Amino acid sequence: MDATPRWLTSEQAAAWDSFIRMQEKLIGRLSRRVQADSGMSASDYIVLAKLTETSGGRMRFMDLVKLVEWEKSRMSHQVGRMAKRGLVTKEECPDDGRGAFIVATTAGYKAIEDAAPVHVEHVRRLFINALTHEELDTLARISNRVLAHMEKQPD
Questions:
Q1: In the chain, where do the E strands start and end?
Q2: What is the mean pLDDT of residues 1-10?
Q3: What is the CATH code for 30-151?
Q4: CA triple 100-106-107, angle to 5 deg
Q5: Can you give the pTM of this predicted structure?
């Protein structure tokens, strides 16, 4: 029972294409800047930012996986690379023998503290400064609506 595809209208396709092009270009440029400015990969930055936003700089491995929307294997490899460089450590979870905590080290805190101010300036230069206050509010509302809608949809 092949259903006929429901193609996007020209207006829908234009909105989608513009969004994807903007997102890919923005993330690509920010990723290259983080690497050039701090020597960290964008993945290093994301993991350290999420860890250091939590109390104690620690998070259960699976909570971190879900938060950044990565596969377990990707996170495992990322954490392994970061641990070798001394940015994070992995600690066993005392109440769950199979669980683990990922913890930002002193070096990890220093790395994100050094990188974040420069990163924020690039976000401001490439994204924030292009929009009015009203446009930023509208974008936040739209983004939150899409996120809430996605939560109700099967993965």
A1: 58-60, 88-93, 96-104
A2: 87
A3: 1.10.10.10
A4: 100
A5: 0.88
